[in-house]
């Protein structure tokens, strides 16, 4: 009887698929990029979270989608003046999923569609809170055919977040240089920064 049990267990083990690999790479961060120096006395990061979407996978990641956008704000912005303040906020940061047809590689079940939607906003305010200027950036990325296996889904969501953050970082700097150029400063002195190209980080692999 014992021999029969062992023989019956072998096909099940042979059919088992290894879990998909986790996304490898350094933690999300932008300290290696040149900071955007603002002619303000302080940079504040708004700690209020945006409303989550239904079944938001972005909240389950580490860092979460919201925290990833805040990391970008903390790493890229610095105060380099004596008056006014800059307020960085996250209007949107979510990764939603929808079910698709077909079979997944790991689960054999239906696949899913993931969509990352991220947004960042920077306001320049005077001491009374009056808005002097602002810049906004937003991006979205979609990945289809994602296996519904939880491990595969998480790995795909982490990869998608990194790709979307690459896009957001690029667009964020572009919008600041386009709309808030009078509040950018370089070197030891104050005054508008000269025109400069957008600095890009290396695009992570898909």
Automatic annotation (TrEMBL):
Residues 183-206 are annotated as: Disordered. It comes from the Bacteria. This is DUF4136 domain-containing protein. The lineage of its organism: Bacteria, Pseudomonadati, Pseudomonadota, Alphaproteobacteria, Acetobacterales.
